[in-house]
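User: Sequence recovery, please. Input:
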């Protein structure tokens, strides 16, 4: 029997960010491995016209929860959705709900955050710093609390090259930032944002670092741990635009480490840390790196190659262009490739849409995609070293059964297999494409290749024709090539006649 799974049995667990990518997988694993847990409280806000109940219903009816519903048929009774908006004071939680949370919660997993790189500083601080502070305040009033697990990011200190499993201080105290944001107006905040974030690339990494400081400062005598995952598997959507042929070139360093980590690895580590923190009660707040680079590195070049090889084998339907990956580290080449490989085809396609009476959309889409990709540039042109002493220590503390059920050993990860499954997952679950359509998709790619050759040949001939009309030198070269080919053909014909 798994010790960790048994630990969560009968527990009341509070999860923030349960409707998010990682939160859903965390909840699923908890129900699957500890179906006898008492209740999972989730802090949810209504969104996109859906009530709390509708959101929970949607999660439970997703493919992810199919197995859980078999193992734990009364799963819907064990999820208690509590109205909460992390942007509000006390999260806007009702008195009764707050009372229940304070008196019953045993474990907290704090996953909620704004993960947008370009969030305004005020918003990012509110969610990633102030909300964390408020949740810690709530946690300090919970008599039955055994552990508080905070999800941060391995990139919270991406301004450093070597990162240890410690909390690094930021120059300005989080409390001072929170206080000043209360009275500064948005224009001034925008002005001082670059100075505050310093050598970090965005407000996301900066506020996640501030969030960690808050955790350290407000920990009191609670059992707290911080988990720092790197780039979590499926949030990385790049293979999709690449597979459709929208994105064919990128400013990336092929040798830089692509520190991806599968979401199930992150969730397994998170649950193991929850158990360890509650049972072993380490004296200080431990930080756990959930990264792949130092134990099982894969670089962007290798990853790009494998992604493309998989799209050759299992192509996506109705691709815009043939998938292709061009990595460059040069700014000028990036601009050139963006113009020739991205913007020009989008403009031509929009022209075709206009001609056929449809609304042009590709240029707009392409601009959005290129903007998103440019925000990732910082992360695909650098490598970091994360130490993983605490994570490895924890691995050695697990029983063989726990090491199997809650496996977070990235050394066992086979990248080629992982990427293939990833691409397959995008095709089947994100784009909902049928595998039976693969032969047609391959035909479509062949047609795109022929169009590409035809287009290039036509372009070459036009350019050549224009050159010949204007330059004697070009005419001489042309004459030389034609006469050379003629002589070669005559020789070839003569020698084959002799053989006969
Ligand atoms: C030549 C290409 C060959 C490709 C071969 C294949 C792979 C080879 C390697 C290529 C490298 C490519 C880069 C990989 C990505 C590296 C990511 C590094 C991230 C470091 C993360 C730090 C760790 C964290 O904690 S991350 C937390 C997670 N946060 C995010 O991931 C959020 C990032 N996104 C944003 O902040 C916003 O989306 C933003 C600001 C970038 C754009 O916002 P906007 O409102 O303008 O548009 P959106 O609607 O949100 O998106 C527009 C467009 O971009 C696509 N997109 C968005 N996010 C991602 C993403 N994380 N990965 C890939 N693509 C993304 C999105 O799908 C949209 O595309 P559409 O086609 O329009 O749908
Ligand atoms: N994804 C990644 O690659 C990585 C993520 N992380 C960290 O992991 C954690 C989870 O990330 P991930 O699951 O990818 O993020 P998502 O964006 O998928 O999920 C964010 C969650 O936070 C909730 N949330 C946001 N704002 C509010 C609010 N005002 N009130 C209530 N809930 C709110 C969202 O709720 P709603 O559904 O209502 O919007 C959602 O459930 C974050 O702390 C992130 O920093 C760390 C490293 C990498």
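Assistant: Recovered sequence (500 residues):
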């Amino acid at each position: 029997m798994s010790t960790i799974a048994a630990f969560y049995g009968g527990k009341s667990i509070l999860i923030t960010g349960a409707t998010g990518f990682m939160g859903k997988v965390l909840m699923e694993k908890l129900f699957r491995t500890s179906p006898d847990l008492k209740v999972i409280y989730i802090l949810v806000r209504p969104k996109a016209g859906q009530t709390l109940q509708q959101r929970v219903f949607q999660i439970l009816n997703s493919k992810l929860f199919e197995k859980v519903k078999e193992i734990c048929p009364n799963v819907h009774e064990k999820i208690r959705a509590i109205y909460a908006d992390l942007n509000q004071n006390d999260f806007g939680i009702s008195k009764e709900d707050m009372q229940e949370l304070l008196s019953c919660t045993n474990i907290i997993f704090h996953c909620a955050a704004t993960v947008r790189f370009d969030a305004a500083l005020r918003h990012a601080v509110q969610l990633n710093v102030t909300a964390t502070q408020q949740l810690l305040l709530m946690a300090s009033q919970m008599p039955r609390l055994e552990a508080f697990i905070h999800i941060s990011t391995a990139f919270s200190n991406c301004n450093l090259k070597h990162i240890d499993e410690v909390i690094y201080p930021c120059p300005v105290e989080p409390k001072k930032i929170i206080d000043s944001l209360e009275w500064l107006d948005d224009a001034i905040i925008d002005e001082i944002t670059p100075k505050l974030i310093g050598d970090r690339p965005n407000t996301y990494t900066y506020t996640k670092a501030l969030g960690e400081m808050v955790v350290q400062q407000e920990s009191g005598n609670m059992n707290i741990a911080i988990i720092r995952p790197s780039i979590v598997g499926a949030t990385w959507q790049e293979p999709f635009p690449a597979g459709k042929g929208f994105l064919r070139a990128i400013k990336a360093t092929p040798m830089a480490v692509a520190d991806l980590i599968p979401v199930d690895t992150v969730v397994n580590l998170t649950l193991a840390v929850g158990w360890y923190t509650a049972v072993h009660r380490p004296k200080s707040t431990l930080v756990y790196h959930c990264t792949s680079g130092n134990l099982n590195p894969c670089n962007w070049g290798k990853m790009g190659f494998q992604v493309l090889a998989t799209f050759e084998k299992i192509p996506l339907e109705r691709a815009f262009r043939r998938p292709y990956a061009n990595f460059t580290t040069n700014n000028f080449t990036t601009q050139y490739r963006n113009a020739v490989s991205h913007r020009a085809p989008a403009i031509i396609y929009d022209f075709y849409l206009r001609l056929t009476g449809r609304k042009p959309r590709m240029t707009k889409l392409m601009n959005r995609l290129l903007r998103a990709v440019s925000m990732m540039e910082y992360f695909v042109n650098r490598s970091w070293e994360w130490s993983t002493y605490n994570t490895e220590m924890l691995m050695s503390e697990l029983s063989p059964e726990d090491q199997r059920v809650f496996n977070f050993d990235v050394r066992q990860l086979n990248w080629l297999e992982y990427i293939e499954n990833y691409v397959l997952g995008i095709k089947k679950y994100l784009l909902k494409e049928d595998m039976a359509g693969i032969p047609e998709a391959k035909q479509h790619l062949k047609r795109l290749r022929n169009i590409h050759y035809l287009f290039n040949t036509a372009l070459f001939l036009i350019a050549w024709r224009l050159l010949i009309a204007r330059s004697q030198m070009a005419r001489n070269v042309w004459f030389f090539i034609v006469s050379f080919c003629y002589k070669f053909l005559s020789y070839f014909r003569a020698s084959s006649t002799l053989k006969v």
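The chain has 20 helices and 13 strands.
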